[in-house]
Design goal:
Elements (H helix, E strand, L loop, with lengths): L1 H44 L45 H4 L2 H26 L20 E6 L11 E3 L6 H10 L4 E5 L3 E5 L15 E2 L2 E5 L5 E6 L14 E7 L4 H4 L2 E4 L5 H10 L4 E5 L2 E5 L30 E6 L21 E5 L5 H12 L4 E2 L4 H5 L17 E3 L4 H5 L3 E6 L2 H14 L7 H4 L3 H23 L3 E5 H6 L1 H11 L6 H9 L20 H20 L13
Parallel strand pairs: 13-15, 13-16, 14-15, 16-17
Antiparallel strand pairs: 1-7, 2-4, 3-4, 3-7, 5-6, 8-12, 9-11, 10-11, 10-12
GO molecular function, one term: sulfotransferase activity
Protein name: WSCD1 protein
InterPro entries: P-loop_NTPase (IPR027417), Sialate-O-sulfotransferase (IPR051589), Sulfotransferase_dom (IPR000863), WSC_carb-bd (IPR002889)
């Protein structure tokens, strides 16, 4: 009996010790979780630009240069971000580039909170200037059936659209009809494909089982399956099909038949006849020479880089009287050039971690569009912008350190963030243009314009005071800490697209064909032109703002030259 009692007592003591251990472990885990949450709250609370925030600016920056940006040091005094009262640094620090780079940490925190707040607000909204998508369970046009879909060998080879949030059948039909296609196919609930011929291989109806992202109860294809509809023709009073675009007068290639895969000879040929013929053949170019119509793509034989005087193509308004020998008229049809629209993730992890770095408003999204279409690989992002993901930038949802993307977008400029990358493409844009572009994005999304009320509000001068210095410090920090840099000026990329894009692609260690680059040039704008009315000769900058920005321009220009890079383009020169 005593022996049994002793065993029971020993067992209870072990249980008591075990319970004590579990209780202690539980309390420690809870404490760690609480500390982590507190840290996250503090970080989130520091990510923003208060409306009353105005950074101090150097009054004599134009007298100060950088002989070697690597000698810059971060001064001790810091601004108290988010407070009405700011702690000013010493006067001598305010009058040197040391002050400028020290602002980078505070500005980075400001931008992070503002960026995340903006994207969270913008994701459920359509960009300004675009119409809200209508949900309608009643589809226009005829349902043609369910078909197999191979992304590498597509049957519907025309335009491709993505809306990973609000895709509907009606939206896809209207988009394809607007571009003169006969059929609209939907896959994966969010992808829209256009074409003029039906897929050859039919699939079982039940295999098209993906619900449309923007229309409950409607089917938008499936995994490797297309729900195909006839494209809806515009109703009376609705927006007509997109007009053809006149590209110019060009010297005709030596052998038109070999250069262009489709042709038509038609008496009294008009631009509309040729454009409609080429659209049905799914070609983006309509070329007219006399009574002959040719369809095709820009190629090395016919690159459209060097136009000639339009007077050499006589009768540009009447195709039948156009030059019949050396020259030809070229028009852009509503059909999209799809030779460079296929994109994918890297099959193996990249050994070199490359950043695509820029100040906000410097054209980073446009550069990503060009890089993705030139290389055929998705680009990643340090952030997550739902609006960009919904429009086809699938790398937005991929973790930025996954190394499955060809490069990673970032606006960061802290030492730690910069040194994480092995190399970087540093995209620089005129600060006047960058500030206006970012202000437009803040108030009207990626494709809209801020209103007069926004420009005349107190937000605009506060924005300039805070973000002008960030434009400069962003470049200075990357020059200081970046390991291997390719400097690309937005203006040079816009003016000489293919040569500059070649440099970027070679820097990324990707080999591309000339035809693919020409396809990118043919689709250079993508869907990134701002919509709505743009005010001509609009000048929102006061003289005080110009004086401030001009000092930063001089500082950055000298820093670039100090690192043996070419200086800023002449158009950056102080106004």
């Amino acid at each position: 009996m005593a022996k049994a009692f002793f065993r029971l007592q020993k067992f209870l003591r072990r249980i008591q010790f075990l319970l004590f251990f579990l209780t202690a472990a539980y309390l420690m885990a809870g404490s760690l979780l609480l500390l982590q949450r507190t840290r996250l709250v503090l970080q989130q609370g520091s990510r923003g630009t208060p409306t009353n925030q105005a950074l101090l600016v150097p009054e004599e920056m134009s007298r100060v240069g950088l002989s070697d940006p690597r000698t810059l040091q971060n001064p001790g005094p810091r601004l108290l971000v988010g407070m009405d009262a700011l702690q000013e640094p010493a006067l001598e620090q305010r009058h040197s580039p040391h002050w400028l780079t020290s602002r980078n940490s505070e500005l980075r925190q400001l931008r992070r909170r503002w960026f995340h707040r903006f994207t969270s607000e913008q994701e459920p909204l359509q960009t300004a200037g675009s119409k809200a998508m209508k949900r309608s369970a009643e589809h226009k046009g005829t349902y043609m059936g369910c078909f197999t879909h191979d992304s590498r060998e597509r049957t519907l080879k025309g335009a491709v659209f993505y809306d990973l949030r609000k895709m509907t059948v009606a939206h896809c039909q209207e988009a394809c009809a607007e571009r003169a296609y006969s059929y609209a196919g939907l896959a994966y609930g969010a992808e829209c494909y256009c074409g003029n011929s039906l897929p050859a291989a039919a699939a079982k109806p039940e295999e098209c089982n993906s619900e449309c992202k923007g229309e409950k109860g409607s089917v938008c294809g499936g995994v490797n399956r297309l729900s195909v509809y006839s494209a809806e023709q515009p109703r009376a009073g609705a927006r007509p099909r997109r007009n053809v675009i006149y590209r110019g007068c060009f010297r005709a290639p030596e052998n038109l038949t070999d250069t262009f895969p489709a042709s038509l000879i038609q008496p009294n040929l008009t631009v509309e006849m040729c454009s409609e013929f080429c659209s049905k053949k799914e070609f983006p170019l309509a070329v007219i020479q006399g009574q002959e119509c040719y369809c095709g793509y820009p190629t090395r034989r016919f690159s459209l880089r060097e136009g000639t005087d339009g007077r050499r193509c006589s009768g540009t308004h009447n195709a039948s009287s156009a030059a019949g020998g050396e020259y030809c008229l070229v028009y852009q049809t509503p059909v999209q050039d799809t030779r460079c629209t296929d994109r994918r993730f890297l099959t193996t992890k990249s050994k070199v971690f490359v950043a695509l770095s820029s100040f906000p408003g410097a054209g980073n999204t446009w550069a990503r569009h060009l890089i993705e279409h030139a290389t055929g690989y998705y680009t990643g992002s340090y952030y997550f912008d739902g609006a960009l993901y919904n429009k086809g930038f699938k790398g937005e949802k991929d973790h930025w350190r996954s190394r499955r993307t060809i490069c990673v977008k970032t606006h960061e400029s802290g030492k730690t963030e910069i040194e994480m990358f092995d190399s970087a493409i540093l995209l620089i844009r005129n600060p006047y243009k960058s500030l206006m572009a970012e202000f437009n994005r803040k108030y009207a999304g990626h494709l809209g314009y801020a209103t007069d009320r926004n420009w005349k509000s107190k937000e605009w001068p506060d924005f300039v005071n805070s973000y002008a210095s960030w434009w400069a410090s962003h470049v200075l920090e990357w020059l200081k800490y970046g390991k291997r840099l390719l400097i690309v000026h937005y203006e040079d990329l816009k003016q000489s697209l293919i040569p500059k894009l070649k440099e970027m692609v070679e820097f990324l260690n990707v080999t591309v064909t000339e035809d693919r680059l020409l396809c990118v040039e043919n689709n250079r704008d993508g869907n990134f032109k701002r919509s709505g009315a743009k005010q001509k000769n609009f000048e929102p900058f006061t003289q005080e703002m110009k004086d401030l920005i001009n000092r930063y321009i001089l500082t950055v220009d000298e820093a670039l030259r100090g690192r043996n890079f070419s200086g800023l383009p002449r158009e950056y020169v102080p106004r």
